[in-house]
Design a protein that fits this description.
By secondary structure, the protein is of the alpha+beta class. 28% of the residues lie in helices and 22% in strands. It contains two helices and three strands, in the order αββαβ. Strands 1-2-3 form a three-stranded mixed beta sheet, with helices on one face.
Length: 87
């Protein structure tokens, strides 16, 4: 099983949350040597900036839960840390 890529996460978020704005940044290289960081330098630490009509009327915790739920399948692939900014 290979580590997830920014494109993998982006495709899944587009499919599930139909975002109006989306940016997925792989910050794994900046976490080299930290817990959960892969030796490959990618695929373990991501930052997501996202706006979705599905967030309307939901508090921040509920919006973050939608993002985590959408990306759950990548946890088994090595996704270790996810920073989320909902717009």
């Amino acid at each position: 099983m290979s580590l997830p890529t920014s494109k993998d996460l982006e495709a899944r978020l587009r499919e599930v949350l139909q975002p109006t704005e989306l940016e997925v940044i792989d910050e794994s290289a900046a976490h080299a040597g930290h817990a959960g960081a892969g030796a490959e330098g990618y695929g373990t630490h991501f930052r997501v900036r996202i706006a979705s009509p599905l967030f309307a009327g939901k508090p921040r915790v509920a919006r973050h839960r939608l993002v985590y739920d959408a990306l759950q399948l990548f946890i088994a692939q090595g996704l270790h840390a996810l920073a989320i900014e909902t717009l």
